[in-house]
Design brief:
With 446 residues, this protein is α/β, with parallel strands linked by helices. Helix content is 49%, strand content 9%. It is built from 14 helices and 9 strands. Strands 1-8-7-2-5-3-4 form a 7-stranded mixed β-sheet. It is globular. The termini are far apart.
């Protein structure tokens, strides 16, 4: 037994030494030995080969799917406005058949509405040898099946232990490093060391996901005293951005491991964490954020105005609170490539542990990050209009669908005001066409 224990300890020591020498140390220094690039090259070639094999194996080619995931619906919607579709109201009075318009809209929403489908994983055009997300996939050949089995072995027996080791090193380094830096008095030296710790640990955590991130337009990177807003797909969005620069995070205080990290990092960096009771007090939150922005020596604030994770095909309503603070807004668009791994966190379906396991057993996390020119609130523009303008800019840059709906619908019912708005629009049409007036006259005469 002692020999077995010694052998296991020796293997563990060698494993840890290789990880530290080949991955952790280069990550800390911000250099690459080319291992990630070689891995991605092999992965791309393998997926290309698999796609070709699938296309050859399909006897009856399916119609080419649209490139836009948002357009892959099962309903061809008619976006004709209500007034044009019920055009006969301009000629005659109310008819009972008018309800068919609202019935059809209701059936469309039940079968496939444009909100809830944003909270499920994006469908792939071609199988990526992970999960059978492609509805057209079936058994093709023995060689393809063998490659899939080899992929499972590689992902679970090699990549998962490696990534778990890197994640443990990154998280431990973050907690220990920020705790030590937090003991120093406030000074430029403390701020510098805090940024070094955050950058170094974020780079290690990105390597733990086999992350390949392409940053564009770095001249527009958020500056101190500003507010960085981005679309939200996953909890790793913050790590993706911190890998290229430091930010002051804004969020709710958590328990468990996340709480330990929050309490450690806030000692070294001016993050803004709120208790649950404080989050409900909008004025207190706004006050604390304004105080942070007013200090031009502090790091830019990182905020995800959607308030929940969306599946990276769309951008939903931005909460106006982030745009009432004042100061300069630095929009950032994040777009993940689902072919290599699904970064979207469906918190209604998976807990954080299951989600991280899915990430660490995927091929890689590949994404593009666009830093966009800073934006300021125009004269006469309210917070809602400013938020919509920023949201539109992010959607255009990231190639995402812009939706007016609140991401809170992920867990809440539709507000009555939305239904009442349709009722009001229909009533206005009746009034304008004299239907209600004629009905009232007829009733009084009777």
């Amino acid at each position: 037994m002692e020999d077995v224990g010694s052998a296991v300890a020796w293997v563990g020591a060698v494993w840890l030494a290789l990880v530290l020498a080949l991955i952790v140390l280069p990550s800390a220094l911000g250099v690459s030995l080319g291992i990630s690039e070689a891995y991605m090259w092999v992965l791309v070639k393998t997926l290309e080969w698999a796609t070709i094999r699938i296309e050859k194996g399909v006897k009856k080619p399916q119609p080419q799917m649209l490139k836009s995931p948002a357009a892959n619906g099962i309903i061809e919607r008619d976006e004709t406005p209500m007034e044009k579709e019920i055009a006969r109201l301009h000629r005659v009075d109310f008819e009972f058949s008018d309800i068919f318009y609202f019935c059809r809209k209701g059936f469309e929403a039940i079968v496939e509405d444009e909100v809830t489908q944003r909270f499920s994983s994006e469908e792939l055009v071609s199988w990526n040898l992970l999960t059978r997300t492609n509805v057209n996939f079936h058994y093709i050949s023995l060689r393809l099946t063998v490659v899939w089995v080899i992929g499972v072995i590689v992902r679970y027996c090699f990549l998962l232990p490696l990534r778990f080791t890197l994640a443990a090193i990154g998280i431990t380094s973050m907690i220990v490093g920020t705790t030590m830096v937090g003991q120093l008095p406030n000074s430029s030296v403390k701020n510098y060391l805090s940024e070094v710790v955050h950058l170094t640990c974020s780079r290690i955590l990105v390597r733990a996901l086999s992350g390949t991130i392409h940053y564009h337009n770095k001249e527009n990177k958020p500056r101190k005293g500003g507010i960085c807003v981005a679309n939200h797909t996953s909890p790793i969005d913050a790590i993706i951005l911190t890998n290229d620069g430091c930010y002051a995070m804004v969020g709710q205080v958590h328990g468990g491991l996340m709480g330990v990290i929050q309490r450690a990092t806030v000692k070294a960096c001016p993050h803004v964490w709120f208790e649950r009771s404080e989050i409900k007090d909008r004025h207190l939150v706004t006050k604390r954020l304004r105080e942070h922005v007013a200090d031009k020596s502090k790091l830019p604030i990182l905020i995800f105005p959607e308030g929940t994770c969306i599946n990276n095909t769309s951008v939903m309503m931005f909460k106006k609170g982030s745009f009432e603070i004042g100061g300069t807004i630095y929009p950032v668009a994040i777009k993940y490539d689902p072919q290599f791994g699904d970064a979207f966190w469906n918190s209604s379906k998976y807990n954080i542990v299951s989600y991280l396991l899915r990430l660490m057993t995927s091929w890689a996390i590949v994404c593009n990050v666009w830093y966009m020119p800073p934006m300021v609130r125009k004269e006469g523009e309210d917070a809602v209009q400013f938020a919509n303008r920023v949201k539109s800019a992010i959607a255009r840059q990231g190639g995402l669908t812009e939706l007016p709906w609140d991401g809170g619908l992920k867990r809440a019912k539709v507000k009555d005001t939305f239904r009442e708005e349709q009722q009001k629009n229909y009533s206005k049409m009746l009034v304008r066409n004299g239907s209600i007036g004629s009905l009232s006259t007829g009733t009084e005469s009777d």
